[in-house]
Design goal:
Elements lengths: L30 E9 L2 E15 L4 E7 L8 E4 L4 E3 L5 H15 L9 E2 L3 E3 L6 E3 H4 L4
Antiparallel strand pairs: 1-2, 1-5, 1-6, 2-3, 3-4, 7-8
């Protein structure tokens, strides 16, 4: 059987690094999603719960400690608020951002229904800090 054709590169998320969202937009107990990729015609990500304020070392700004309900080695991570989208309430700011990101990346993606991790995020070795690819390369 011939090898599968290579997938085109995943589209870059150029919106999140410039998203203007304040620390106060989220609160302990909020259910959020960190958008990580594309599945067919939708974005997908990791659903978590906001736990407590925490300093986000990679961006040197206020962040949030998040709890992954699936547990594991990384039950708790720290993220900058611009990485988060509300799940537990219909939030105009989050919906506008979500729709803009969908418009930007889904039309550029050539995916089937299988989830594709676009590689927008990584975890640092320091206290499991979630870092957007643009922040990892020095963008603030």
């Amino acid at each position: 059987m011939p090898p599968a054709a290579p997938r085109p590169p995943a589209p870059a998320d150029t919106l999140t690094p410039d998203r203007d969202i304040t620390h106060g937009h989220f609160a302990p107990g909020d259910r959020i999603v960190v958008l990580k990729g594309i599945a067919g015609e939708e974005l997908w990500g990791d659903a978590m719960t906001v736990v407590t304020p925490s300093w986000h070392t990679p961006t040197d700004e206020d962040g949030w400690r998040l709890r992954d309900p699936n547990g594991g080695q990384r039950t708790f991570v720290t993220a900058h608020p611009r990485y988060l989208v509300h799940l537990n309430r219909r939030c105009a700011d989050c919906l506008i951002f979500l729709r803009a990101l969908e418009k930007l990346v889904i039309r550029k993606a050539n995916t089937d229904s299988a989830p594709v991790d676009c590689g927008w995020y990584t975890l640092s070795a320091i206290d499991h800090q979630l870092i957007h690819a643009a922040d990892a390369s020095g963008h603030k």
